[in-house]
Amino acid sequence: MALLVMDEEEESKKHFNYNKIVEHQNLSKKKKKQLMKKKELLEDDFEVNVKDARFQAMYTSHLFNLDPSDPNFKKTKAMEKILEEKARQREQKEQELTQAIKKKESEIQKESHKRSIDPALSMLIKSVKNKTEQFQARKKQKVK
Questions:
Q1: CB count, 10 Å around CB of 59?
Q2: Would you give the distance in Å from CA 28 to the centre of its chain?
Q3: How much of the chain exceeds pLDDT 70, in percent?
Q4: CB count, 10 Å around CB of 44?
Q5: pLDDT score for 56
Q6: For residue 94, what pLDDT is reported?
Q7: Per-residue pLDDT at 114
Q8: Residue 5: predicted pLDDT
Q9: 44 closest CA partner among 84, 87, 88, 81
Q10: Where is the NUC153 domain (predicted)?
């Protein structure tokens, strides 16, 4: 009796052939229609949960980078979703960095405006400016 029940359980499980799924995705529309008529077309109904915390290393670590130029890379719907999520997270990280940089720059500018310049330093700056102006004026007189 247990053997009969075990056979029914095995039939209910859905097995898949990865190579066939990839092959069917790369078929032309005409061939897909022919297979649909024969009901032999395999649909890839596998859904990847890109928000799963267990797979965050795929998006952050260079060790788990996907290389589409690799000959063993198979372009499937799931892989496309993973690549899209990685690009989205990279874009989001760049935006956060630019916002943080802008915020720090504005804080630095506010601080520089708030600070008053030391009087001795301002006198030194004025004297250097005056001497350079005098030097430029003498240089113009010699050239004429």
A1: 17
A2: 31
A3: 79
A4: 15
A5: 87
A6: 95
A7: 66
A8: 53
A9: 81
A10: 52-80
Q: Minimal CA–CA distance to 48: which of 90, 73, 80? A: 80
Average pLDDT over residues 94-103: 95
C-alpha–C-alpha distance, residues 48 and 50, integer Å: 6
- Angle (CA) 55 59 64, round 5°: 75
The two three-digit tokens of residue 142, written as one number: 């010699």
The pTM of this model reads 0.51
SS (H, E, C) the chain: CHHHHHHHHHHHCCCCCHHHHHHHHCCCHHHHHHHHHHCCCCCCCCCCCCCCHHHCHHHHCHHHCCCCCCCCCCCCHHHHHHHHHHHHHHHHHHHHHHHHHHHHHHHHHHHHHHCCCCHHHHHHHHHHHHHHHHHHHHHHHHHC
Token readout for 19 is 């190579």
Question: What would the pLDDT profile of 13-68 be if each residue is shown by its tens digit?
Answer: 566 677 777 777 777 778 777 777 776 655 656 678 888 888 888 888 889 888 88
Who contacts 132 (Cβ-Cβ below 8 Å, separation ≥6)?
Answer: none
